[in-house]
Structure formats: C-alpha cells, structure tokens
Write a structure and sequence with these properties.
By secondary structure, this protein is mainly alpha-helical. It is about 80% helix and about 0% strand. Belongs to the EamA transporter family.
Length: about 325
Amino acid sequence: MKKGLIFIAFSTLFFSTMEIAIKLVATEFNPMQLNFLRFLIGSIILSPLAIRHLKGSGFSLDKSKVLYFLFSGFMCVVVSMTFFQMAIVYSKASTVAILFSCNAVFVIPFAYFFLKEKLTKLSILSLASSLIGMICIVNPENLTNVTGITLSLLAAVTFALYGIIGRKGSLKFGFDGVVQSSFSFLAGSLELLLLILVTKISFVANWLQSVGLSKFSNIPVLQGISWSSVPALIYLGVFVTGLGFSFYFLAMEATSASTASLVFFIKPALAPVLALFILGEAITLNVFAGIVLILAGSCVELFSDNRQAKLEKLAQAHALAKQAVGSTNQAHFR
C-alpha cells in the first residue's frame, strides 16, 4: 500500500504541473507541435511497461485492434489534447487544470448512455456538485474569456469520451490501461504528424491562413526546438506524459482503480496552488468556491465507486456461497 501511495504522489505531482509546464513554453512551440512531441515521447516511455503487461497474454495486432487504437488515439491526442493545448494558450493554466479535471465527472452520464452503467443517487449528487463548481469558476456574470473556457470544457468532454472508448476497448479486447494508453498515444501521435504534414502543403496552408486559422497553418515538427526549451519538452514528454501515466497505472496495480483515481481528485486543488507560486496566477473567491465544490463532488464519486465495488464483491461472494451450498446438497443427495 505504501508503494501505491508513492506512485499516486508522483503521478499527482506530474499531472498537476502539466498545464503550468505547457504555459511556460506556450510561446516557444506551436500548440499542435508540442502536442505531437509530448505524446510521441510519452508513448515511447510507456512502451516498456506495456510490453511487460503483454508478455504471455497471447496478444496480437489485427485489423480490428489497429482500427480501435487509431480511433482512440485520434480522440485523445488529435481531438481532446488539441483543445487542451489551445485552451492553455487562451486561458490561465489554473483554470484549464480545474475544468479539465472535471472529465471524470463527464464520464458519469457518458457511461450511463454508452455503457449502460447504473446511474446512482450519489453519482447524480457528484455530477451536480461539480457542475455548480464549474459555474462558479466560469462566473457567467463576469465572463471575459469565452474562448479559453469553451476550449477547456471541450477538452474535458472529449477526454471523457476517450475514457469511455477505453472502457469499451478493455471489455472487448481484454487489455489494460497501460497497453491502451501506450498504443493509443503512439497511434494518435502518428495521426497528428500526418495532419501536421498536410498543413505544410502550400494551398492548404494558404487556405488555413485565409480563414483565420494561422496557428494550424504550416505547423513545424522539430523547428524551433532550442537548448532553452529542451528541459521543458523533456519534462512534458518524459515526466508528465510518460512517467505520469506510468505511475498512475502502477498505482492501480499496487492499490485499486478507485484509489488511483485520487490523482484526478487532488489535482483541482493542487494545480491552482502551484500555478499561484510558479506563474503568479491569483486564486479568486469564486475559483476557490468552485474548487471546493468540485473536490466535494469528486469525493462523493469516489465514495460511490468504493461502495459499488464492495456491493459487487458481496454479490459475488453470495453467489459463490450459494453455488457451494448447492453442490454440497447435490453431493449429499447422491
């Protein structure tokens, strides 16, 4: 258990500094370029752990698995993380960190509609508390950054959809989170590279500039990388994306999925504090109220998950006991 808590601590630290590290180099890299580089590096760092998980499992790539990884990678890296990168450009790192952490809350209704998972009263309470917290942070009465808020929420919603895709893939193909992430990150990085190369075609680049999408025109791949930006790039690729997810999955192995999810429940509180000290981003009263409500909602959901897991274990134990009694009665009858 102690080892699991250490893994959670490191994963929380890396994930909580993600938006801050990106903000520090936002002016040195194109958002799409940085997205491509950090997930490519992250997939390489995750690969040894994924290979270890696949040993002796009889896993083999076929057309359906390749298509699945291409789809999940596209949803995560190309769609969700592009919204995420752009959100950090247009909004404060602390705001993006808090709103993006709500992706776990958006999973609740998606799981109900797409996975037919039961929607409990506690889940509804968690969802309501987190939504009110988001409204406090957004502050509709003084909404001055519509673009940044919208991009942050789009990143959270699409990442929640990626989580649902991951669950469906796990149920269908039987691989775990580390394999899912490693292959999806690699597939998504290659897809993003292809799109980046397309933006370099002259007529495509000219059209993107003419419609006001200059950030998506002629996107660099390696250009602009300097000695001053290399440490931040290594931190984002190796530590945040690679080791952050590695420690998260190792925490799952050492504890449980619900305990490991504490990473995303602590982040909304820790990230703004780190942003205050590193970037000087002030925590206003409405943001503080939003953090408290989101943390409350997250705690309710964690309690709900633990309660549901205990009920399932009791049901399984009851079924096994009933089966054992039935077998004993049959043997006695004979």
